[in-house]
């Protein structure tokens, strides 16, 4: 037994290395396909749509990290999404000749640029800010909530309440950020190119694909090793983990902050591909929709989060183009179907139950799963040999 | 040698209800101590206070000479107190190996867990533990698929992986088969060679198997302490377990129980015969007819309780 175990481990690790290699190859191929083939296939409008959906898939990854793996259902990711979006939009708004301030300030009689706009003149600062600001806000919110051991439904309610606070605040501040009207980025320029031009949009699309891949790799790394198992442990039995000597607060704050930062990037990319950001992005329904994407795709599976977003969003586009009235009913039905028939989402179903259900449909007997280690169990092997021997001799 | 765990005048009250009432307790390093007591005696609260889940209202708990007040659960755990819960609590979506690796991790802060891979020393410890708890063949399936007994062992294994100085074990054999119970007892006894252990248990057979010193809790205080035999013959213990105070002296009671258990031993006495033995025995100690009658009933009740009597 002592001799056998190491060989088993090395076999397993080389196998997992091989799988990692295959996964990497698939990601690179898909990434290249999206970046270079898609623009040739799709029209400008469709490409923009795909870009927006892919940026939403980024925020879904963040939700999956905090909900699917760590078990904290956040209904307030709209905040972080919007913060990222606003950060980038503010930078675009400041592409003006020396001494001028964005046009909308004139409507409210504001003559001086508010102080917090100043640093957004700088492009590097903006890039950092659109990640760091949501990260810090999420980290702070998370710290206050998790330190006081607020969990479950109360956490969800708190995040939703925070979302409403931000929503009302952004709506009310005309003099600071144009209130309800939001910030329009379509008509602004970035590096001297109009943000809504095909050229700029294509770049945004490619950056989105790249950001999605990077976010996926980050989440994959986080959820894969010991840290990922600790997240699952927090989800399954936080109290046990506490008595094992871990303080879950730090883990939860870190994951929530990362999840917020990811949402910030997604928000920035979504904004420039939509052409405008308004406080409506922080509506309660939108943040809940994010959760639905993950639930449909399969929580606790990163691919599921991405796939769920694309499926739900494309279904929405298709249905609302054909029958504008139907979408909301469909969305409700979708959620019900997922909760009742596919509790683990599409990917979860494919992983656990699809094989057997399809076999049952075509009339083949179901495969019974057994302990896979039975084959490797030396005791079983020895028993088999002993059973075989008398028959041979 | 200094006591590893000392508890002075500990009171814990929940909205006025005293779950623990001026409890004093002390155990030496390397000791295996069993705590028994009827339901609601405060056994689980006792563990809650030591592990930091509940803060004492009054009094203090000292572990390795240090007052545990206002330390959080995870700090106490890192300080060397491991706890096994009443129902097995393992991470069902992780494999036994992963469960043990989590418990085994020496550096439990966020960034160490993120950046440091599992060290080879820890892997070796985990491998050894898997063999000890007999889960080598099932080390790669989800812990949710294990049987109840296997989960209990896995949790004990996780406790050991934590390498605590003091193990607190809450009802380790609840829901186990007889065979598993004996194996669990052996496991605890072998662990006791290198750890201090507190076991809380209801199962008297099991307590007899492992017990050296037994502490009886009753209504939040320590009722008595001593070897299993001393404790079982202590009239106060009999009273709290059976709910009635004997009217005769300890020695008389002991004699009565010895004689009557001898009479009962072969199990083939006719009811009439039993009546005669009972009335004669009780007549021996009683001073009047009324007391004799009472004593006879009392004796019959004790025997009906099926408390094992050995001395």
TrEMBL record, chain A:
<keyword id="KW-1133">Transmembrane helix</keyword>
<keyword id="KW-0472">Membrane</keyword>
<keyword id="KW-0812">Transmembrane</keyword>
<feature type="transmembrane region" description="Helical">
    <location>
        <begin position="121"/>
        <end position="146"/>
    </location>
</feature>
<protein>
    <submittedName>
        <fullName>Urea ABC transporter permease subunit UrtC</fullName>
    </submittedName>
</protein>
<feature type="transmembrane region" description="Helical">
    <location>
        <begin position="326"/>
        <end position="350"/>
    </location>
</feature>
<feature type="transmembrane region" description="Helical">
    <location>
        <begin position="290"/>
        <end position="314"/>
    </location>
</feature>
<dbReference type="InterPro" id="IPR043428">
    <property type="entry name" value="LivM-like"/>
</dbReference>
<dbReference type="Pfam" id="PF02653">
    <property type="entry name" value="BPD_transp_2"/>
</dbReference>
<feature type="region of interest" description="Disordered">
    <location>
        <begin position="370"/>
        <end position="393"/>
    </location>
</feature>
<dbReference type="InterPro" id="IPR001851">
    <property type="entry name" value="ABC_transp_permease"/>
</dbReference>
<feature type="transmembrane region" description="Helical">
    <location>
        <begin position="250"/>
        <end position="270"/>
    </location>
</feature>
<feature type="transmembrane region" description="Helical">
    <location>
        <begin position="204"/>
        <end position="223"/>
    </location>
</feature>
<dbReference type="GO" id="GO:0005886">
    <property type="term" value="C:plasma membrane"/>
</dbReference>
<keyword id="KW-1003">Cell membrane</keyword>
<feature type="transmembrane region" description="Helical">
    <location>
        <begin position="72"/>
        <end position="92"/>
    </location>
</feature>
<dbReference type="InterPro" id="IPR017778">
    <property type="entry name" value="ABC_transptr_urea_perm_UrtC"/>
</dbReference>
<feature type="transmembrane region" description="Helical">
    <location>
        <begin position="20"/>
        <end position="43"/>
    </location>
</feature>
<feature type="compositionally biased region" description="Basic and acidic residues">
    <location>
        <begin position="379"/>
        <end position="393"/>
    </location>
</feature>
<feature type="transmembrane region" description="Helical">
    <location>
        <begin position="49"/>
        <end position="67"/>
    </location>
</feature>
<dbReference type="GO" id="GO:0015658">
    <property type="term" value="F:branched-chain amino acid transmembrane transporter activity"/>
</dbReference>
């Amino acid at each position: 037994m002592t001799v056998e175990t190491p060989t088993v481990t090395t076999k397993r690790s080389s196998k997992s290395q091989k799988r990692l290699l295959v996964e990497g190859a698939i990601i690179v191929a898909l990434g290249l396909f999206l970046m270079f083939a898609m623009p040739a296939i799709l029209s400008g409008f469709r490409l923009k749509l795909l870009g927006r959906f892919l940026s939403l898939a980024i925020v879904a990854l963040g939700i999956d990290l905090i909900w699917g793996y760590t078990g904290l259902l956040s209904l307030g990711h709209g905040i972080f999404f919007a913060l990222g979006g606003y950060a980038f939009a503010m930078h675009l708004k400041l592409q003006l000749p020396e001494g001028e301030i964005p046009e909308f300030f004139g409507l409210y009689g504001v003559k001086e640029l508010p102080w917090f706009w100043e640093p957004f003149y700088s492009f590097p600062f903006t890039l950092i800010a659109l990640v760091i600001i949501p990260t810090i806000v999420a980290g702070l919110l998370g710290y206050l909530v998790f330190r006081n051991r607020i969990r479950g439904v109360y956490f969800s309610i708190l995040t939703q309440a925070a979302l409403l606070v931000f929503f009302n605040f952004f709506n009310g501040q005309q003099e600071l950020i144009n209130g309800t009207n939001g910030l329009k980025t379509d008509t602004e320029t970035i590096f001297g190119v109009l943000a809504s031009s095909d050229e700029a949009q294509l770049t945004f699309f490619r950056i989105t694909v790249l950001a999605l891949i990077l976010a996926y790799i980050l989440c994959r790394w986080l959820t894969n090793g010991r840290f990922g198992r600790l997240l699952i442990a927090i989800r399954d039995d936080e109290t046990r983990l506490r008595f094992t000597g871990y303080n879950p607060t730090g883990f939860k704050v870190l994951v929530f902050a990362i999840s917020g930062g990811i949402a910030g990037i997604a928000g920035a990319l979504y904004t420039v591909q939509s052409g405008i950001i308004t406080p409506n992005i922080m509506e309660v329904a939108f943040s809940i929709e994010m959760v639905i994407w993950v639930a449909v795709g399969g929580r606790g599976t990163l691919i599921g989060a991405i796939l769920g977003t694309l499926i739900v969003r494309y279904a929405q586009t298709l249905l609302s183009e054909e029958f504008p009235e139907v979408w909301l009913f469909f969305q409700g039905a979708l959620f019900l179907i997922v909760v009742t028939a596919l509790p683990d989402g599409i990917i979860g179903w494919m992983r656990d139950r699809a094989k057997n259900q399809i076999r049952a449909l075509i009339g083949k007997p179901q495969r019974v799963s057994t302990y896979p280690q039975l084959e490797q169990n030396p005791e079983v092997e020895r028993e088999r040999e002993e059973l075989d021997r008398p028959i041979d001799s | 040698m200094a006591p590893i765990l000392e508890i002075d005048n500990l009171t814990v009250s929940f909205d006025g209800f005293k779950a623990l009432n001026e409890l004093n307790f002390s155990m030496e390093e390397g000791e295996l101590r069993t705590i028994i007591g009827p339901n609601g005696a405060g056994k689980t609260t006792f563990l809650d206070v030591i592990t930091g889940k509940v803060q004492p209202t009054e009094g203090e708990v000292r572990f390795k000479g240090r007052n545990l007040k206002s330390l959080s659960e995870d700090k106490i755990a890192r300080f060397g107190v491991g706890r096994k819960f009443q129902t097995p609590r393992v991470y069902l979506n992780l494999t036994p190996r992963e469960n043990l690796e989590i418990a085994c991790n020496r550096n439990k802060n966020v960034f160490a867990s993120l950046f440091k891979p599992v060290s080879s020393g820890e892997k070796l410890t985990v491998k050894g533990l898997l063999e000890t708890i007999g889960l080598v063949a099932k080390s790669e399936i989800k812990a949710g698929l294990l049987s109840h007994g296997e989960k209990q062992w896995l949790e004990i294994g996780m406790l050991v992986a934590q390498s605590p100085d003091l193990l607190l074990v809450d009802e380790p054999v609840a829901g186990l088969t007889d065979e598993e119970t004996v194996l669990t007892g052996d496991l605890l006894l072998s662990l006791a060679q290198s750890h201090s252990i507190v076991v809380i248990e209801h199962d008297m057979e099991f307590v007899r198997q492992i017990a050296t010193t037994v502490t009886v809790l009753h209504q939040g205080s320590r009722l008595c302490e001593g070897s299993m035999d001393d404790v079982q013959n202590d009239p106060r213990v009999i009273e709290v377990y059976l709910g009635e105070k004997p009217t005769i002296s300890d020695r008389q009671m002991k004699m009565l129980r010895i004689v009557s258990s001898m009479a009962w031993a072969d199990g083939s006495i006719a009811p009439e015969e039993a009546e005669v033995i009972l009335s004669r025995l009780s007549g021996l100690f009683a001073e009047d007819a009324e007391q004799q009658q009472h004593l006879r009933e009392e004796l019959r009740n004790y025997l009906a309780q099926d408390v094992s009597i050995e001395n």
